[in-house]
Amino acid sequence: MRYNNKSAVKFDTLAAKLYFFDDMKNETTGNRPRIALMTNHGYAGVEIPVGGAPDTGGQNFYVNSKARALEVLGMDVTIFTRGGFPFYGKDKIREGVQRMGEHIRYVYVPGGGTEFVRKEDISPALKEEALWLSDFIATEAAKAGVAPWEYYECFDTHYWDAAIIGIMLVERWQNEEAFSFFSQCLDGRLSQELERFEGENKHRYSLCREAGFHFGLMARAAFDGATTEEILFALMPEETFTEQIRASASTPQFYAMLEADCLLGQALLNHVRVDGMTLPERLRLVNRHVWTPHSLGIIKERNYWDKHVEQVRSLKFCERNSHEQMISSHAPLFCSTSPEIWSTLYAYYKQKADVIFDFPPCLDTEIFRPRSHSELTAAYAYLAEKSGLTAHQLKSAKIIFESSRMDKTKRKDLLLRAFAKVARETDDTYLFIGGGPDGNPVFKDLKKVKAAYPELEGRAFLLGFMPSYMVGELFSVPDVYVSASEMEGFGMSVSQAASAGVAVVSSDLIPFATQFASDAAVIVPAGDVDAFADAILDLLSDDAKRKELAGKLYEIAQELNWVNTSRKFIGWYRRHLRITPS
User: Fold this and answer.
1) With contact defined as beta carbons under 8 Å apart, do 158 and 46 qualify?
2) What span, in angstroms and rounded, lies between the C-alpha atoms of 178 and 399?
3) Are 573 and 75 in contact (CB under 8 A)?
4) Which CATH superfamily is domain 373-559 in?
5) Which of 119, 230, 519, 548 has its CA 20 to 30 A from that of 288?
6) Which CATH superfamily is domain 1-7+14-153 in?
7) What are the tens digits of pLDDT across the range 231-272?
8) How large is the C-alpha radius of gyration of the chain?
9) Which of 211, 179, 183 is nearest to 197 (CA)?
């Protein structure tokens, strides 16, 4: 169906403020197929503040890496994310359009005010963002001569907050389709009734959700004075009546039941066709939403059953689980980033296996790879500057490393306590923990923990923010990578260490380790300080074992390839959404 300009949402001044029509670099490029990704919380963007910005980490690397792979495969990629507030640690506002590649752009979507909002509190911003996006996409689609829902091959949302925005967009597009369907079906008989749904009213009335109710009202008004039977036969073409319908229509109970407007309308929706399709069939075509949850509240909540109520309360599991329950009933397709998420979508949310695509976080093996000492000169110099040690000392020592955002759930404090025992029993062994900023409350607490253990003086170091250009090298430096995290959807930092050929000690709550590398990573109970210390000591004392496990992890990591998996993803969603690329 071609786009009807009369039903377009007007492009408002807020959208115009962001989108620069005189700057063609901000538009999608060429005739490539278009795909939209949305990652809504934290500091998503072309530059990701590594190891410290709140709600910013593995998901952002996932989305950016997926976008680059899709670009390699010939797609034009738009990444939508929340804007309107400053970039991390800067005065510059996140607004406008920013290029990440020749065929990849970031669009910063206003909504929710001018301050950063943590993901647990993001709900009030979502409708504002959806309304802005509706205008933005409608304007671009009108220029391309297609319906807004046709502009992108699919709308791939990440985490529950982005998915709520995706659902609201789909509903608005479906409202437009319902309005168009009724207009064509009633063929101008009911101009005054249809005027009720002009502009924003079609969304306020939730036209697609209550399509049967409104269709029943319209049909009775259009055929004023006609019986239910006469309306049915007037609107349903003869060929749509099966023998079963004829048989049921001949009974008095059938027509008595349909006296309710919503039931009459529902009967009409199931059988009346415009351009060869019923309205439900048309609405299904509009829904090109793919949800990639990254984690699920029901899984996270199980990890927190034994935690204190004060710690659990701030995570708002009840609200999150309600959102995810709703998303699972509206999104037609899903991506799982771990076997646990796949099985939960299948078993708990009752999704069919063929609508769930297995898309774990993959790896850029050009960035995260084994390196020789000579390739790590800059990394050793950086660690020497941060620690006060010499590069020569570091090269001959054993190094333990962890890097992730500065969040309580990462349990960096446990690593310090565990390393205190390691430091007492070993010489020339050092711990480096990445993440900041210095003003973060968790960072401040870590400094207190570090000061409480004299044996950590000169042995354990808090790096704060790490330069993004050096992240790959820093992952290649350590002898052992350790993560004590207690709340992970996948565990990208652990997989990155694996790709760098580094042995790993992991908590038993990190899916990459437990579900992909259970025979290669050393897995210990979350929260057990002594178990972490003993596992580190065991690997440090056995060079052969450490090398063997690192080799196994490296082989596992090489199977996670962004481009190959993205190619399969494109074929999968095109098949399910019945998209034939032009």
Assistant:
1) no
2) 62
3) no
4) Glycogen Phosphorylase B; (3.40.50.2000)
5) 119
6) Glycogen Phosphorylase B; (3.40.50.2000)
7) 777 777 665 544 445 555 555 555 555 556 667 777 788 888
8) 28
9) 179
